[in-house]
Write a structure and sequence with these properties.
With 132 residues, this protein is mainly alpha-helical. A three-stranded antiparallel sheet has the order 1-3-2.
């Protein structure tokens, strides 16, 4: 292979790589635009929710258990009974949830997270209470 042929192959590879880089830059630009539009819409939805929450009378009843997440129901149980010390199984019975091992373990994780965030305290091993 002579030098001229080597330079021609090198130029061809350079041209292909430059074209691919241009294509990737265009995709990045489109994705960046789409991300910006999506984030703006998310901010609009968040603001709308805050406005609606602000207009809702404070005496409105709690949302039905069907629309609440389990996490929200757990927080609500501690808010309703701030002095009560719950064990995970007691909490599940109070909420009427199935006590299968996987869901109980998930709830233990949730309670641990609420404890680390300062919402709950642990007056004993496996016992949780709302921080007052």
């Amino acid at each position: 292979m002579n030098v001229g042929e080597l330079l021609r192959l090198l130029q061809a590879e350079h041209d292909e790589t430059a074209a691919r880089a241009d294509s990737l830059r265009e995709r990045i630009e489109r994705l960046t635009t789409a991300l910006s539009e999506t984030e703006a819409r998310l901010a609009e939805l968040t603001a709308t929710r805050k406005v609606i929450d602000g207009l809702t009378p404070p005496d409105h009843g709690p949302a039905s258990a069907k629309t609440d997440t389990v996490y929200q129901r757990i927080v609500a149980a501690f808010n309703e009974h701030p002095e009560k010390v719950f064990r995970v199984h007691d909490l599940y019975e109070h909420l009427g949830l199935p006590t299968d091992d996987p869901s109980v373990n998930v709830t233990r994780s949730r309670l641990g997270r609420l404890t680390r965030q300062g919402f709950l305290t642990q007056p004993g091993r496996g016992r949780y209470q709302k921080r007052t």
